[in-house]
């Protein structure tokens, strides 16, 4: 980093940190979407396991015991997990999100320098990428996505260095850097973003290699190919502690068994109406406000899933690119390649609205993924780099008459938006009928809508005027990129801070009222009709306004929405999150419960260890008794209890066999099936036993999340049943000898036990993880050895780039 970049960088860090000081200090915790529902509970369960001296292979609180370490979304093998050993929980949790936004800034800036941008222009590019709608949306809710997205520019930088390498040493060093960066991105656990990163990095590297002279081109393409292959092997080895355990369980996960339908595969696509957010970032809604729905009326009225809340690139970078694009000199090889990449990425983000997206859908492997708007991240990095090129171009020339006309057109568009958002104006007339359908207080909704649009108009107009002022003759700067980058950050705080929905940590850490009724063994079933609340029960900060979303964070804890109760020791029969139900058999059992009659559902829940059920008042649990009722957020809830708890580890002396999973589920929820003494196993044909169950008992020696042991004494052969979701990773031994593990009761584990007295052990297979750790250690040592072997002098820019960069623009 050059000296002239130190002060702007320090200013950027301070400006970003100050508004989020409560989150940095841990007095408030991020709670938007996945942050509260999955990432926080998973992390707390993992920390508790480690504190007890156990590796968190299994999350026993989730759906009959789900893989935890092998779950990519849990992000447990990523370096920031070490923050849990240094800082208080809320601080460590929040810092993972916030630090990766800054890491994205440094990565995009480094990529800009690798592509020959000056210090200021690269600074601007970094700010545009890090403080874009895409990155801030990831950084407010998705622990795995924000980490993976922050590594995208770092991976691309290493590949660019590989394509530019002038010597073998430089190529080896760049390949090692690419392998480590890609390996860390894999550990972040977002495979779709990793695939997009590979596509972007390879395209950028190929462009750089082909730009070399004809004599150099072949050598650089060979170096790019060989180095890329080596980097890929290194990345796979570095991520092996996650990939090998994942490989073992993936075939019987929901993603491994299920191919998304066309509708699900194309969910959360970009659309033309969302392009309005380029100029009006909050036109799609404010996630900090409750009552407007996700992206205001669009998702509520049309039942669309909104995965990324805001898609703006920022007014300042868009204006810079627009002003520079009217000059022919701006359009050179790199700007053309980046512009084409941005357009292509945006087109793919439309999903099935455009026919060529079906090419992605036709590939079976890719159908395991979803959300076409993820392509939009590539458009964001391309626009960020284009903005850096634009800053350099504008520093060399005046805006001119055409630029002034374009800026005037943008201001005119803002003026039109101001007029359209007037009280009783066109926006009110269009949104009013929909607001009356979905908003409990349509007047408050429309008032918030107008305020958001007009606020964006004022902020955007001010940004345009500041950019014009920045490029006047009297204010012309040698490096305008620094000022543009800081302005980009400041303007993004206006609409970006509401994305970081937080709630007081001390409130969230308070045990829920129902916890005193949930003591002892057994699992909780939460009705899929929850969360439910009456918006009229929420206070508002300003008269006529909307309540804040942060108020619901405590409501979710009080309603024990899966998995918010896990940090308090609550275990769940099923999760409601569609991606959280990791085991395929568990997901099918959950769907069967939802489709059952109340009595059948109670029997199924009891079979899988259910002891309590929390439901809305109108729900029925005819086989269970009510324990207590309470009112939460204006809704009456009832807690039920199962009078006959099914042991987690038990001996079943009577065997049913069914040829299909549907037949098994039909059997086990029937009145004639005894959940304690019976077991249903797969068979070639349906077979029912005759007579009473064989006498036998299991003396439990130990039960934990990832293992169990018992001494079984039986008069006849039977099965030891363990209430854990079946996956091929479970292994068993009977009297020290390996024994097969079967899927029992359409979800659980069963081990055949002969007559007599025997000792049975069941445990989660640790071998893939141990092998993965060994491979990771070897990969890391290899990378360090390569770095030491090829180190010649301290430089961050390949010699070929440094020699071609003017001394005034060389950076760190």
Concise structural overview:
With 812 residues, the chain is an alpha+beta fold. The protein is built from 29 helices and 19 strands. A hairpin with a 6-residue loop joins β2 and β3.
Account of the 3D structure:
The chain is α+β, with helices and mostly antiparallel strands and 812 residues long. Helices cover 50% and strands 12% of the residues. The chain is built from 29 helices and 19 strands. The strands form six sheets. It has a five-stranded antiparallel beta sheet with strand order 12-13-19-15-16, with no helix packed on it. The chain has a four-stranded mixed beta sheet with strand order 5-6-8-7, covered by helices on one side. Strands 9-14-18-17 form a four-stranded antiparallel beta sheet, with no helix packed on it. Helix 15 (315-325) packs across helix 18. It is globular, with a radius of gyration of 29 Å. The chain starts with a helix and ends in an 8-residue tail after the last helix. Residues 792-812 have low confidence and may be disordered.
């Amino acid at each position: 980093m050059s000296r002239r970049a130190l002060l702007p960088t320090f200013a950027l860090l301070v400006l970003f940190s100050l508004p989020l000081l409560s989150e940095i200090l841990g007095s408030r915790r991020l709670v938007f979407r996945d942050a509260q529902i999955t990432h926080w509970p998973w992390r707390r369960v993992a920390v508790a396991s480690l504190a007890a001296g156990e590796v968190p292979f299994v999350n026993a609180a989730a759906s009959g015991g789900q893989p935890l370490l092998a779950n990519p979304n849990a992000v447990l093998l990523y370096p920031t997990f070490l923050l849990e050993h240094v800082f208080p929980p809320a601080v460590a949790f929040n810092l993972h999100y916030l630090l990766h936004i800054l890491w994205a800034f440094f990565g995009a800036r480094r990529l800009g320098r690798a592509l020959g941008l000056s210090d200021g222009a690269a600074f601007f590019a970094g700010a545009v990428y890090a403080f874009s709608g895409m990155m801030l949306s990831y950084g407010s809710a998705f622990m795995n996505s924000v980490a993976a997205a922050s590594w995208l520019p770092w991976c691309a930088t290493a590949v660019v260095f590989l394509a530019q390498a002038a010597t073998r040493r430089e190529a080896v060093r760049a390949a090692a850097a690419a392998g480590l960066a890609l390996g860390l991105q894999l550990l972040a656990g977002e495979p779709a973003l990793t695939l997009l990163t590979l596509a972007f990095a390879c395209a950028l590297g190929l462009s750089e290699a082909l730009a070399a002279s004809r004599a150099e081109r072949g050598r650089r393409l060979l170096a790019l190919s060989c180095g890329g292959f080596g980097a890929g092997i290194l990345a796979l080895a570095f991520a092996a502690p996650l990939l090998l355990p994942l490989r073992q369980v993936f075939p019987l996960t929901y993603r491994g068994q299920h191919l998304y339908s066309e509708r699900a595969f194309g969910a959360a696509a970009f659309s033309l109406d969302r392009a309005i957010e380029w100029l009006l970032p909050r036109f799609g809604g404010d996630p900090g406000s409750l009552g407007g729905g996700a992206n205001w009326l669009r998702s509520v009225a049309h039942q669309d899933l909104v995965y990324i809340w805001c898609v703006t690139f920022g007014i300042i970078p868009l204006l810079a690119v627009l002003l520079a694009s009217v000059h022919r000199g701006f359009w050179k090889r790199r700007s053309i390649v980046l512009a084409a990449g941005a357009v292509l990425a945006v087109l793919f983000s439309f999903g099935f609205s455009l026919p060529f997206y079906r090419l992605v859908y036709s590939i079976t492997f890719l159908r395991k993924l979803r959300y076409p708007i993820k392509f939009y991240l590539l458009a964001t990095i391309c626009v960020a780099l284009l903005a850096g090129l634009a800053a350099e171009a504008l520093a060399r020339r005046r805006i001119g008459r055409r630029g002034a006309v374009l800026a005037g057109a943008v201001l005119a568009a803002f003026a039109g938006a101001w007029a359209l958002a007037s009280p009783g104006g066109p926006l009110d007339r269009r949104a009013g009928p929909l607001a009356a359908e979905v908003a409990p207080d349509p007047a408050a909704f429309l008032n918030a809508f107008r305020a958001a649009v007009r606020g964006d108009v004022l902020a955007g107009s001010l940004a345009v005027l500041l950019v014009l002022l920045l490029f006047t003759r009297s204010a012309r700067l040698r490096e305008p990129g620094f000022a543009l980058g800081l302005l980009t950050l400041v303007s993004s705080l206006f609409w970006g801070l509401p994305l970081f929905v937080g709630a007081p940590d001390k409130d969230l850490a308070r045990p829920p009222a129902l916890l005193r009724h949930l003591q002892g063994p057994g699992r909780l079933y939460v009705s899929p009709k929850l969360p439910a609340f009456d918006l009229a029960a929420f206070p508002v900060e300003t008269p006529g306004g909307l309540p804040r979303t942060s108020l619901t964070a405590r409501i979710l804890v009080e309603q024990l929405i899966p998995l918010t109760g896990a940090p308090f020791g609550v275990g769940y029969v099923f999760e409601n999150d569609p991606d959280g139900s990791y085991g395929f058999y568990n997901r099918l059992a959950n769907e069967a419960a939802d489709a059952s009659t109340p009595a059948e559902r109670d029997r199924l829940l009891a079979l899988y260890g259910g002891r309590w059920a929390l439901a809305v008042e109108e729900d029925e649990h005819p086989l269970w008794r009510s324990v207590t009722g309470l009112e939460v957020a204006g809704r009456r809830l009832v807690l039920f209890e199962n009078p006959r708890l099914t042991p987690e580890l038990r001996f079943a002396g009577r065997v049913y066999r069914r040829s299909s999973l549907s037949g098994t589920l039909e059997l086990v929820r029937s009145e004639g099936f005894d959940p304690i003494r019976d077991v249903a196993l797969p068979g070639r044909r349906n077979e029912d036993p005759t007579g009473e169950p064989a006498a036998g008992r299991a003396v439990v020696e130990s039960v934990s999340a990832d293992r169990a042991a018992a001494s079984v004494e039986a008069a006849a052969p039977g099965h030891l049943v363990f209430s854990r979701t079946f996956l091929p990773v479970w292994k068993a031994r009977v009297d020290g000898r390996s024994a097969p593990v079967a899927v029992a009761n359409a979800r659980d584990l069963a081990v055949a036990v002969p007559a007599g007295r025997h000792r049975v052990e069941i445990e989660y297979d640790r071998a893939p993880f141990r092998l993965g750790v060994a491979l990771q250690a070897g990969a890391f040592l290899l990378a360090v050895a390569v770095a030491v072997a090829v180190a010649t002098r301290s430089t961050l820019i390949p010699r070929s780039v440094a020699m071609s960069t003017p001394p005034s623009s060389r950076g760190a």
